[in-house]
Amino acid sequence: MKDLKMYINGKFVESKSGKWIDVLNPSTEEVISRQPEGTVEEVDEALDAATAAQKAWAKTPAIERASYLKKMADGIRGRRDEFVDIIMREQGKTRGWASVEVDVTADYFDYMATFARSIEGEIIPSDRRGETIMLFKEPIGVVAGILPWNFPFFLIARKAGAALITGCTIVIKPSQLTPENCCEFAKVVDATGLPAGVFNVITGKGSVVGNAMAASPKIGIVSVTGSVGAGESIMKAAANNITKVSLELGGKAPAIVFPDADLEASAQWVVDSRIGNNGQICNNARTSRRNSPTSSSRRWRL
């Protein structure tokens, strides 16, 4: 069994609480690792590190920030098979799904690196004589990134890629069901030489770690991907400081099949969509079926 570590201010650490949370293989229910049960004090420590590092990171030229993202992408590719195995073991994905997730995550870091050349402001005409208005884009500060378990690896890139390229620092909390991939990714980050405090990982319970992150006045925005219930809790915690909140919550997508469609192919695509990743994707098809009352054409909404 593997003991995981958090990553705070450029160091791999265990929780001062001395407590651990078991991580299970969902297929066998075997305990495959255990994660430190992070505390509110350790959240503060990580946020303090991110705050201290943010100003210098923001002053780093965007093209230099991009170079770190490219190193992260290369680091993922260098350990591709290892990350695939981790995701299969702790999340339950098939090898095909896990492989796609790892490859897309590396590609996404490369993609976000290209935005180094797109961070631009504006010159705006003024209504007053002799006045010019200049609009600058500034980083929002420290980002709190709270991850789900259904795509635990890719969502690291979704949160951290945008934050880092724009000059923000980040504290990430992985799902307590799937923390190992994130803890291992921290080793990739560490190997890039990224300045301490720019990227941090805190493991533990959402009710403790996640809420403490969202409730802190030290963050500029909290970005959450998860259930509706989790989003409600995070929004409540962030409300006291009127902290910006970005929520990507649970939902399903419709599939509309028209009479002139290839019904055999459509049926297969809908089935594939419904069961992909065990149905745990936001664009999986819904399952209800009804005729549209507003159209003479029959539509299936699945």
Secondary structure tally: strands: 14
**What is the distance, rounded to the nearest whole angstrom, between the alpha carbons of the first and last residues?**
42 Å
pLDDT under 50 segments (min length 5)? 289-302
The structure class reads alpha/beta
Strand order of the largest sheet: 10-9-8-11-12
Order of helices and strands: EEEEEHHHHEEEHEHEHEHEEHE
Strand-residue proportion: 15-25%
Q: What is the average of the pLDDT values?
A: 91
User: Helicity range of the residues?
Assistant: 40-55%
Q: Largest sheet, if any?
A: 5 strands, parallel
Radius of gyration: 22 Å
What is the overall number of helices? 9
Shape: globular
As an assembly, this protein is single chain
Explain what this protein looks like in three dimensions.
This protein is an alpha/beta fold. The strands form 5 sheets. It has a 5-stranded parallel sheet, with helices on both faces. A hairpin with a 6-residue loop joins β4 and β5. The longest helix has 20 residues. The C terminus is likely disordered.
